[in-house]
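Can anyone check this?
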Amino acid sequence: MNRRMAVCFLSITICSAINLAGCAKPAPVPIPELKKDYDRPLPPGALALRKITDPAMLPNFGQAYYNAQNGDLQRSIKNSLHYLAKPSSKKYFPYGEVSHDQAVASLNAFLELLATARSPEEFDQAIKERFDTYISVGCDDQGTVLYTGYYCPIFDGSLTRTERFRYPIYKKPPELKIDPNDPDGKPIGGPWKTRQEIEGSQALAGHELVWLGDRFETYVVNVQGSGRIRMPGGRLLEIGYAGNNGHEYTSVARELIADGKMSKEGLSLDAMIAYFRANPADLDIYLPRNPRYIFFQEVKGGPFGCLSEPVLPMHSIATDKEIFPRACLALIDTDLAVKTDGGKRRYVGFACDQDRGAAIRAAGRCDIFRGTGDEAGRLAGHTYSEGKLYYVFLKPEYLNQPPGAASPIATGDSPATEPH
């Protein structure tokens, strides 16, 4: 299975995506002083979602209408349905009152709605009539969720070691057996070698998958859990998750802040790159503080999320899979960077919950996949805002009705209006 690891170098968190090869670099992204504990854990056994029973508390789904029209949302939903068709997906349901059959029916019904709704008003009406809406309790039981972003980087590399490319990314060694029943792909028998033990020895000599030209680049790929590597001839090698060493994730950025090496206000991946290039000896101090290590394999058709399904920009999210429902349909409502100049505007759009991250471990956290490459990385680096997170499930009374039979929009005649 291919799983993305934590995007964020902070558990607080912000990630940035500056081209490590040296393109123009924007100013560091300022990080607001945290006033809430976004990583506040839920009580044992509690789920992240609460059903909305007051109609006045429902969002305006019509605001997501135009963001749902480019075809990628349909593709994302079909990826979720492909996952839910696997027998192994049934072990994660019921999720509260939501059965596996209901999760599947909800996605199919939403696909139908996307094909028939002809205006934001019809879209909003149909969802409110046919679907129950749940909201994440958030970090404060008031629905506050911190949104961050992640991406799939593209770096230069080589299949063979050269003078330029001398930092390896490793395949999973044959002796490391992954527990097939563990959703996170941990090794059988408990944690294996730490990052320091792996990188500070020749224990995995002969198991190199690809070589990169910068040690910190290998760390970025390792934390992201996927990447695309540009070969000397121009071919792109796509690599994805093949397992982990079983150790917990520790934020290197948080360690830098704790030691007074960097400030929260000036933190970005760009700033971390500059710091380690100016202080290369500190790589030996700080990188080993994150003992978690990811192993890779060549993949095609990705990048992939933790469901082993492709993730799509803006239509795939990562949440804590212990408390959020896998593959189900969510509504993002937050202020979001739409350009790399740092400017933000409100974004309301649907996405499928298809991924997880080691730093995304609470009801108050959600990570949005921003895409592949440098531009997507810069957008990911500017994704840092509070908002609300909703999920929709087909109401029980609509579960056994044939497609189109109960749609309140089937006979509507109002044309779709153009977006502003």
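Reply from J.R.: I decoded it. The CA atoms of residues 349 and 362 lie 21 Å apart.
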